[in-house]
Amino acid sequence: MEVAISLLLNPHVEDVWQSVLCAYRPAKPGGLTFQGRVANLSDLTDHQWSADHWLATAGIEDRRIDHVNSVMVEGRGQNHQHWLKTCRRPPARKSEFLSRCFTSVETNMQHAQPTESEKEIYNQVNVVLKDAEGILEDLQSYRGAGHEIREAIQHPADEKLQEKAWGAVVPLVGKLKKFYEFSQRLEAALRGLLGALTSTPYSPTQHLEREQALAKQFAEILHFTLRFDELKMTNPAIQNDFSYYRRTLSRMRINNVPAEGENEVNNELANRMSLFYAEATPMLKTLSDATTKFVSENKNLPIENTTDCLSTMASVCRVMLETPEYRSRFTNEETVSFCLRVMVGVIILYDHVHPVGAFAKTSKIDVFSNSLQWVFLPVRYTTKHLNDETTSKQIKSMLQ
């Protein structure tokens, strides 16, 4: 009989990995072969039992293993069914960190308070987040000047219609400027949180456990970002208004006509805003670029500090959403939407900073999660590595 066992472990810790493999090595040589790491749930075939059963069988309880995603057992030979049944044992205890996250996430999201060491960063970020809801309300109520613009274009000789269109567009561009400037504030806030949650000597898991108030703010930024981009993607008036503003402003300059809105948005700022709103998901793009810049500017900080922080947050959200025991404790349906948006956000950030991205077989993120099926639109437009050769065809097909 030959049985191949593959384990999927979150941290890349070689001594832990070896201890798990050795625990399954039989006294009789040649009895088992080991296949290495299986990265995607689609690769798991035949008999799948919870990873906790297999770790318990092996006697492995190492605190450095934050989460075991899955174990694949593929039997070859007539007697492998009996061997598997006799090896099955009661589940091992989950790590303390993830258990606390699962059982108290809703409470933490509502009531997490900063410790003394967190307060400086927390207060800086809180000033930004206080304005987030107002930004979303302004964006949600943004109706655009489509009617006035159409009238002005259809009657180019009618000065009153030109003035009416210009008068309607200028205050709207003021709003767009406010949204853009808020994205710059949000970028600075995110970088401050990344610095706090990835610094030495603590591991990313320890940071997320010790600094729950900052982790909550990080999640709130991602939640806001996904909500903003969802609203922007469904409102074509934003780009239409800004394009009309720029065309009209250019005409006024050529004709030496004083422009009321030019002091509001000068040419340099207009160029930056144009690039921002040209993105399908401008806020996610801003935060992705900010995370990439953070990693490149902090070369003394292991990149794993950042990627492990992101993948751990994704794992926490996924298990909370897909485990009925935990999901049933949510008293507010908004918590489900919150977790979904945060999970998508960290996947996209991970994809931008990890050398091979979120979709390679070695990725620590389960992109086959059932929870992600209806929120793939921002993933499609904002990821960096989705179209790489290392991305499986199944993932590409799922996201199209």
Automatic annotation (TrEMBL):
Residues 107-396 form the CYRIA/CYRIB Rac1 binding domain. GO terms for biological process: regulation of actin filament polymerization. GO terms for cellular component: membrane. The keyword Membrane applies. It is found in: Membrane. It is a lipid-anchor. Its main location: membrane. The keyword Ribonucleoprotein does not apply. Pfam families: CYRIA-B_Rac1-bd. GO terms for molecular function: small GTPase binding. Keywords: Lipoprotein, Membrane. It comes from the Eukaryota. Belongs to the CYRI family. Interacts with RAC1 (GTP-bound form preferentially). This is Protein FAM49B. It comes from Myotis davidii. The lineage of its organism: Eukaryota, Metazoa, Chordata, Craniata, Vertebrata.
